[in-house]
Give the backbone structure.
Amino acid sequence: MSDLLYSEVEEDLRASVRDLLKDRAEPATLIARTETAEPYDLKLWRTLAADLGAAGLAVPEALGGHGASAREVAVVMEELGRSVAPVPYLGSAVLATSALLATDTSQAEVAEKLGKLAAGTLIGALAVPLSTAPGAEFPSTVSAAADGTLSGQVRSVVDASVAELLVVPAVGPDGPGLYTVDTASPEVTITEAISLDLTRRIADITLENAAAKRVADSSAASALDTALTTAAGLLASEQLGIAEWALTETVRYLKERYQFGRQVGSFQSLKHRLANLYTDLVNARATARYAADCLASGDDIAIAVAVAQARNSPIAVHAAEEAIQLHGGIGMTWEHPAHLYLKRAKSDEIALGTPGRHRAALAPLIDLPA
């Protein structure tokens, strides 16, 4: 039977990541950064990825990583959800890394890139729209020519604006393939798009006969689906972190705020709303932990991921909405960070498949009628 409690190693990892983010990703700092031309904190990314080793958790030691599992990656995602830190962890350490890990890692090109991604010296992005769900058809917006060059466009790619390596699904003369592309190539154009989430950006990618190296052919579709499934399962932990921040900060505020000579938090109607949020949070933690454990063990992955996303997406949104409402007037201002969490929660709700899409995927897996 799976043990969904956090291990001592996972708690130590959480403490290290939380201390770093508390010191380097304070809400006031985040809000100021969203108004600059550099919304990502790449110094923080280097510390998180290289010094703490968070980027290489899922990469085997033989390839330069730490040989951990999805459970440890989920802990990092949870803490990033609590802080909405502006770092490209989802795009690089989860999506791009998972896609390459699902290919033949004995290839020199794959091993080299995984080593650099694990070390945090290279930022990657998986060139698919952020809304792409596991089980979706293989993308056909990029084509591969007979000489191996790629042409086409991909919209709404997460973390692409700071990526140095693209992992690109493309269809060529021999069918679907997975390719790596250097973003420094003049044939690659990356244009940042307007994003609801101010701390995680999306961008459009245009390729015009861009030089590429094929890393997967017949296994390309499987590798892509593995990456999307892994990311969707781990995103549930980020959504858990968002909900946990929302409840913790709201309880703290309601204990400090007085009205008519009483703590606002002492009003029964507000207690009921907070109790409902806590119940949702317990539910979200159970589903997120189960999804991470299944990704680590390889059992019941499809079911666990579908349940986690169908449940945690609305929980995170609801928790962030309640945080704004229960903070009153201050919660509606730009100066309060609650809007950053609501925007991340809403963005996550459509990322890697909507809750409805995951419920539809779950039904046949557990023999429910459509």
